[in-house]
């Protein structure tokens, strides 16, 4: 009985015991001592002990074949061949499917020059495991090394009865070729081709190609051609493969049969789907570059590119860029009917949505079609039909393309059919008036010198778009050119009286320039005054002053200075101080060139002082975003800023006094000298 039943201080778990045992397995044991055997009894005793060890290992686990192989190899090392053979036989009884066991057994027999025993083992191996190719390779190799060619051939024949994989057939063929048995190799090829045709669901083309190359290599060219022809017939049009036709064509190319090569390539290209014939295209192109003429090469390249474009437009019929490339290719090579067919296919893909941005690329298909019919095909009737069909297709109530109307009108003019051109442009303006259409129609009538028609068109244009300043200016310029100054001035007056304009500053400038050209200076001044009633922009004042300066009269300088004075008074209430500074800079430039010392001094006193200030910034959400520095201008004339100016002057004086006192403190000798002085 255990008297002390308290638990031990150090507890040991089962996991610790297992871990310790595992760690001690890795400890290196000292090697066993070397033994020197001096007589037969010791040798027999050593053999007995080793055999007992091997037998014990086998008895513990019979299925571990490595123990059997080690046992047999040890017996073989002692030249106990009979015992080793017995061990291998016992092992085969345990696991006859073990490939390594058969190989080691046969290698032992061959190593010890037991040829018949080795043959017996190989026969048993290939009979037991006929699908293990390694046994067949080893067996045939052994027979060939022994010079038993007939025996090796017999083994190959036995192997072929099992219908092995492709490499086995080629090994048999190479074996026959090593002994110059070409007829036998040909018969093996025939058997293999027949086997693939009858047994395999999808026979491979490469076997036919290898057979044909075999015939070609041995200079049986007629046989090789026959093999290719049989292959083409065997696969038919349902299972055509480009590799077969490429090989066939290269064979004929080597035989200098160039017409046959072209026929083969064209036959294959007409029947094989284009996506599966890329290599075929490539080889055909190379062939034509080597042996063909320029026309043949171009035909191949064009056909290849045409196929690519066909695939693109088939995948996406609304890919108009692909259609443009396709049409450019077809126009460069094909006849007119083919080009028209492609154009008709392209324009049939109308954009599904009636929005102008989707039609911008599509409309150029029609334009190119019409230009092709006119310039290349020289068919004016078809050109007119194309333009009319396009204009009927466009949804003019939603949007239109002025370019199309103008091109149609220009075409009719080239055909010397002016009434049709005018009718087309008139219809366009009636259906869907646009600025571009009016401008194109007016330009046409100007070229024809039909000024009355131009006046009517301008009137219609300005009724449609009265805010268009460019149209008013062009109309007035037309009347000026025609010499009707009063009519031009009336047009300008109508224009500036419009309630809404897109570019009023351009219109006023044009009107002022017009009056200056007519040397109507009083009317020009009145125009400036009327403009200043509408806007107090600094550029207007500067332009007014420069006009007075360039008027060329004696009182031009006082008038100019007076304008600057008025502008300065008017700009005092302007919030944009930069504009006021711009005015003063222009005034100072004028005084520097034409003024006296008094006027120069006066303008210098008016110039503002530039100071740097800080202001607080706020973010979009109202939070504090820091401070920003900016420049501000303080004008001496602004009485509201006088206290600030006084404060600024006092601050500058105080800063100057501080700097002087600091300089005196840094240099006391200088103060003594100054006091003595």
From TrEMBL:
GO terms for cellular component: nuclear speck; post-mRNA release spliceosomal complex; precatalytic spliceosome; Prp19 complex; U2-type catalytic step 2 spliceosome. It is found in: Nucleus speckle. It comes from the Eukaryota. The keyword Hydrolase does not apply. GO terms for biological process: spliceosomal complex assembly. Keywords: mRNA processing, mRNA splicing, Nucleus, Phosphoprotein, Repeat, Spliceosome. InterPro entries: HAT, HAT_Syf1_CNRKL1_C, Syf1-like, TPR-like_helical_dom_sf. The keyword Transcription regulation does not apply. Gene3D superfamilies: Tetratricopeptide repeat domain. Residues 66-352, 378-529 form the Pre-mRNA-splicing factor Syf1/CRNKL1-like C-terminal HAT-repeats domain. Residues 657-677 are annotated as: Disordered. Involved in pre-mRNA splicing process. As a component of the minor spliceosome, involved in the splicing of U12-type introns in pre-mRNAs. Belongs to the crooked-neck family. This is Crooked neck-like protein 1. It comes from Oreocharis arfaki (tit berrypecker). The lineage of its organism: Eukaryota, Metazoa, Chordata, Craniata, Vertebrata.
